[in-house]
């Protein structure tokens, strides 16, 4: 069968709602788009552990300490699951886990804008759980119907865990919102800090060429703007019901058009954050990852040596 | 409520203080080591270990919570206040648990030393006449068994791997050895605790048992055994601590201290 015929059959299977599996034939373009998406998703989970990990040692009650530890652990676990999926996709290109992990250290893979930002107070830890994870759930739930089977299965577990994270964040938020004046102010400040980043998180309004290809391939099914609108519908009423102010004077719901009107973030600024690691915490967090990976290579090497010894003893 | 002995313990102020002191040793040890473990989150040598090590950290803080809750029943303070609001000189953890994290070898050596000690301590406390403690300890021991298996494996593999790993292991052992003796102290109330059978084993015996268990693991890892265990200069069990403890507490309580009266 010629490549062209294979591609036609591949598209027919996708249109008929079949899931593509790791061992199935797939067009290079499909593989590359998926790999880019899942690689970035996996690395974002791992980099996403870092802003919150700053608050693990400082969590203010025993219960909160346990909860935030478990949450950050989940993020690392998601990173691991996603990298396993990406590894299979990357294998035909001769790329390994080592490459996927070190790419972020060398600026060869992007991670979500939100994880380049500062989280200077405990309220930021709450906002990350509530709204960043809330936004992530909306994104990821839309991907549950993706045409790639291994990604869909991993996402099912991730979404289930993320909804716990959202509740963890919400619990912190509710406590602060019902707390002292200082606590409420801390919360409002954190919301102000995160709002623009949250809007950027969903991506540009216009459908880019590669986004359109991902829609064609059934990798994703919704546009950025559809997802952002879902986010507004779900969270704006909740934010307001806590007595917090959304830091966008233009934000309103157009009843006729059935859509939210909102102020666009500074696309260029956040573009630089993501593409050039120019966010306030980008370098520091990349350095932490470099420490974790490069400076501890001796540990992984020792484990390999020790395994060889064990194997040779058994043989 | 918890049997005759507890009633007696609660009515006798000396016994009550002795019991509380023991519970603080357990709670503070577990909180400190769990806190130090949790600082590795996101930074472990590989992603799989990051997930595994975090489970250990969570277990340790979970155990601390159990002990602080027992203490809360004996006092008017909440478990959180006991965990977050006490100054260093009231903390009863051994110095080994408060030390700042070094490299991964330091973490493995410290944790293996501590877990071996903790397993022996829990083994002894399983026979404690203080029932709320002996009952809780049964559950904790099931979890600690897995920690010890994990840490034992790391210790032997890193030690046996030779090269840089072996050098780092030896350096870590050197660094931590002087803190080991401080684990076995039962603090200021050992005699009372022994007489009332709240603890069934003396610190001398505990130390002996620890050496018996750790020595063969050194052999397995190919690391020469060190005979002497010194008495440490500072005894954490009576509230003597290092500057590292002050920094730990500053971090631990930084949010809590913004407003100790507030809900968090």
TrEMBL record, chain A:
Gene Ontology CC, one term: cytosol
Pfam families, A to Z: PaaA_PaaC
Top-level lineage group: Bacteria
Coiled coil location: none
Gene Ontology biological process terms in this record: phenylacetate catabolic process
Any one GO MF annotation of this record: phenylacetyl-CoA 1,2-epoxidase activity
Protein known as: Ring-1,2-phenylacetyl-CoA epoxidase subunit PaaA
Lineage: Bacteria, Bacillati, Bacillota, Bacilli, Bacillales
From TrEMBL, chain B:
Alphabetized NCBIfam families for the sequence: PA_CoA_Oxy3
Gene Ontology annotations for the cellular component aspect, listed alphabetically: cytosol
Species annotation: Marininema mesophilum
SUPFAM superfamilies for the chain: Ferritin-like (SSF47240)
GO biological process, one term: phenylacetate catabolic process
Pfam family, one: PaaA_PaaC
Protein name: Ring-1,2-phenylacetyl-CoA epoxidase subunit PaaC
PANTHER family (UniProt xref): 1,2-PHENYLACETYL-COA EPOXIDASE, SUBUNIT C, PHENYLACETIC ACID DEGRADATION PROTEIN PAA
């Amino acid at each position: 069968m010629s490549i062209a015929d294979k591609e036609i059959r591949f598209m027919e299977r996708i249109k008929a709602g079949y899931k593509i599996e790791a061992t199935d034939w797939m067009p290079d373009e499909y593989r590359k788009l998926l790999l880019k998406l899942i690689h970035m998703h996996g690395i974002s989970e791992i980099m996403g552990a870092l802003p919150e990990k700053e608050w693990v040692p400082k969590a203010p009650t025993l219960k909160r300490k346990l909860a935030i530890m478990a949450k950050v652990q989940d993020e690392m676990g998601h990173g691991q699951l996603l990298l396993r999926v990406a590894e299979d996709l990357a294998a035909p290109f001769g790329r390994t886990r080592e490459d996927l992990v070190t790419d972020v250290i060398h600026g060869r893979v992007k991670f979500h804008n939100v994880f380049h930002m500062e989280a200077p107070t405990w309220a930021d830890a709450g906002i990350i759980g509530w709204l960043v994870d809330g936004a992530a759930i909306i994104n990821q739930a839309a991907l549950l119907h993706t045409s790639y089977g291994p990604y869909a299965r991993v996402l099912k577990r991730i979404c289930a865990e993320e909804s716990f994270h959202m509740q963890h964040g919400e619990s912190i938020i509710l406590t602060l919102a019902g707390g002292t004046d200082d606590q409420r102010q801390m919360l409002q400040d954190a919301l102000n800090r995160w709002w623009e980043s949250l809007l950027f998180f969903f991506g540009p309004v216009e459908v880019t060429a590669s986004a359109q290809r991902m829609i064609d391939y059934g990798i994703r099914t919704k546009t950025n703007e559809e997802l952002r609108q879902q986010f507004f519908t779900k969270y704006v009423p909740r934010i307001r019901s806590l007595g917090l102010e959304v830091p966008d004077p233009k934000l309103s719901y157009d009843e006729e058009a059935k859509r939210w009107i909102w102020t666009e973030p500074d696309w260029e600024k956040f573009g630089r954050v993501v593409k050039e690691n120019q966010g306030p915490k980008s370098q520091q967090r990349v350095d932490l990852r470099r420490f974790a990976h490069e400076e501890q290579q001796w540990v992984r090497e020792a484990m390999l040596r020790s395994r060889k010894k064990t194997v040779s003893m058994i043989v | 409520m918890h049997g005759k002995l507890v009633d007696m313990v609660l009515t006798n102020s000396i016994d009550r203080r002795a019991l509380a002191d023991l519970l603080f040793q357990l709670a503070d040890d577990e909180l400190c080591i769990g806190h130090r473990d949790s600082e590795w989150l996101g930074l472990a040598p590989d992603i799989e270990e990051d997930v595994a090590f975090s489970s250990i950290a969570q277990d340790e803080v979970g155990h601390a919570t159990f002990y602080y809750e027992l203490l809360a029943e004996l006092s008017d303070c909440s478990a959180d206040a006991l965990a977050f609001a006490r100054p260093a000189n009231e903390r009863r953890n051994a110095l080994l648990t408060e030390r700042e994290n070094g490299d991964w070898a330091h973490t493995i050596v410290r944790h293996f030393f501590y877990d071996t000690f903790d397993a022996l301590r829990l083994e002894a406390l399983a026979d404690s006449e203080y029932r709320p403690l002996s009952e809780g300890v049964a559950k904790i021991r099931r979890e600690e068994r897995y920690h010890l298996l994990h840490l034992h494996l790391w210790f032997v593999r890193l030690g046996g791997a030779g090269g840089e790993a072996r050098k780092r292991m030896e350096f870590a052992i050197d660094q931590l050895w002087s803190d080991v003796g401080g684990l076995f102290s039962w603090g200021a109330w050992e005699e009372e605790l022994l007489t009332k059978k709240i603890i069934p084993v003396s610190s001398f015996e505990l130390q002996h048992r620890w050496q018996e268990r750790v020595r063969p693991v050194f052999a397995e890892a190919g690391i020469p055994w060190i005979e002497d265990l010194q008495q440490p200069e500072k005894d954490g069990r009576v509230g003597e601590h290092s500057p590292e403890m002050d920094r730990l507490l500053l971090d631990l309580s930084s949010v809590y201290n913004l407003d100790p009266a507030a809900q968090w």
